[in-house]
Write a structure and sequence with these properties.
Elements (H helix, E strand, L loop, with lengths): L4 H6 L7 E4 L3 E5 L7 E7 L14 H18 L6 E4 L3 H4 L8 E5 L9
Antiparallel strand pairs: 1-2, 2-3, 3-5, 4-5
The protein binds guanosine-5'-monophosphate and zinc ion.
Length: about 110
């Protein structure tokens, strides 16, 4: 068992409700959804946050966005709209130190975020 929750999910050691898996990226439903659609899109590689990304990981970042786009279509939230969020560090409230995009949709959201 690895120490990182999302590495453990990627390795199949912790169960999750997967909606996508490929060689670079996995996606699964958030255990505590904040909207009707709340999916976490996660690189298989352990990257702490968006602050740790380097140019060699550009393909990973691009895949995260494209998978989010495809999942939004699959969830039927393209027309109504959706939000893609990644929290970085303490002030943003990042609670899992493995990069992930939140794909949120299915309800109207306010701005600015809390
Ligand atoms: P963060 O706070 O780091 O931006 O987001 C972490 C997210 O991971 C939270 O929305 C939280 O609900 C979700 N989460 C935490 N533990 C688990 C888990 O074991 N399974 C799943 N599917 N989501 C989790
Ligand atoms: Zn990890």
């Amino acid at each position: 068992m690895t120490a990182c929750l999302f590495c453990s999910i990627a390795a199949g050691e912790v169960s999750a409700s997967f909606v996508h898996q490929d060689e670079l990226v996995i996606a699964f439903r958030d255990i505590n959804p904040q909207a009707p659609t709340h999916i976490l899109v996660v690189p298989r590689e352990h990257i702490v946050s968006a602050a740790e990304l380097s140019a060699v990981q550009d393909p990973v970042w691009a895949r995260l966005l494209h998978v989010s786009q495809q999942l939004a279509a699959a969830e039927g939230i393209v027309e109504s709209g959706y939000r893609i969020v990644t929290n970085v560090g303490r002030d943003a409230g990042q609670s899992v130190s493995h990069l992930h995009l939140h794909l949120l949709g299915g309800r109207a959201m306010s701005w600015p975020p809390g």
